[in-house]
């Protein structure tokens, strides 16, 4: 992977991971990803901003060699997760004079996860600056994008904001800058849904804090650089807002077709009412797509049969994930078929502890749904539509 010049004496030296298809053994990466690291050569000191995933250490070292770097004074660590920090030990071995510059929380996590010795660190606080000679780094602590220790760096003279995970997109591309806004919007929204959505309130205060800065480029550590920063700032402002859309997400699973008949009836009824519907047949769906659909939707309806005296495990997983991602969903309901009873409703509502939605009366039917049962589904669609109307979105 070639070194790319961003500005005068500022280089992108990270790695594109074209083949990676899973992150944290949780998040599907259909478009791969990148681990961006940036080298800033000031008139007096040189800083490396983040490193790369340990699987790509050699790419980073080769890139530094290509630039003829023989000294690194500072390794700025924005985030202790290993896809950005994992090559710090190798960089310290190659450049033993370098100090790892980060905040106190990140220092502790780096010592914990990578066993970096304490004397290798220089600890900075929120708002502190570090001079590289003619270039100045200003550190802004932004917790919970993605872990509690995350921070960003503003390069004062060049007006570049280096954000690590924040504003990132899991997107393997040869483009240094955003060239296809549609593709990047999709990738960044998916990334927001999977990684950032639980921290909406933190992000709101970070966006306020960052509004004070004049930013010409946002350089994240996943995906391309934003040379139109307002594009991603506006997208984030929309995603984190309290505004919900006239949309219903239906994660469902069906064993012998009865629950699916109910789901299809609900889809048709909602469509007739002009409500946007996003069904996810869970055994065939990508959880990243489901997460993305949850960003804006006002309502979620879980479709599940009753099996082993409760909800289907695939539905339980989807509900657990939804609750963990803390979307701004306002209404939840449950539909499905059962044979002889069970605890489906209690089980599912008991899993929704974080998002505290209003529960709309579930529709569970015995066996193959009758026309009378399906009329209850039509009624559920009407109720959802009315609720959306009350919110002023339908
Ligand atoms: Fe890209 Fe939270 O690591």
Ligand identities: MU-OXO-diiron
Q: Give the overall shape.
A: elongated
Number of strands: 24
Q: What is the radius of gyration computed over CA atoms, rounded to a whole number of angstroms?
A: 24 Å
Any idea of the CATH topology of the largest domain?
A: Metallo-beta-lactamase, Chain A
- Average pLDDT over all residues: 97
Describe the structure.
The structure is a single chain. The protein is α/β, with parallel strands linked by helices. It folds into 2 domains: 4-240, 4-Layer Sandwich (Metallo-beta-lactamase, Chain A), CATH 3.60.15; 245-388, Flavodoxin domain (Rossmann fold). Helices cover 34% and strands 25% of the residues. It contains 12 helices and 24 strands. The chain has helices spanning 57-66, 82-85, 88-94, 104-114, 181-196, 200-210, 229-240, 258-272, 287-293, 313-325, 344-351, 371-391, and strands at 4-7, 10-12, 15-17, 22-23, 27-28, 33-35, 38-41, 46-49, 74-76, 99-102, 121-123, 129-131, 136-141, 151-155, 160-164, 217-220, 245-252, 276-281, 297-303, 306-307, 310-311, 331-338, 358-359, 363-366. The strands form 6 sheets. It has a 7-stranded mixed beta sheet. Strands 17, 18, 19, 22, 23 and 24 form a 6-stranded parallel beta sheet that branches. Strand 10, helix 4 and strand 11 (121-123) form a beta-alpha-beta unit. Helix 5 packs across helix 7 and helix 6 runs antiparallel to helix 7. The longest helix has 21 residues, at 371-391. The radius of gyration is 24 Å and the shape is elongated. 49% of the residues are buried. The mean pLDDT is 97. The chain binds MU-OXO-diiron. MU-OXO-diiron is lined by residues 79, 81, 83-84, 146, 165, 222. Residues 79, 81, 83-84, 146, 165, 222 line the site of MU-OXO-diiron.
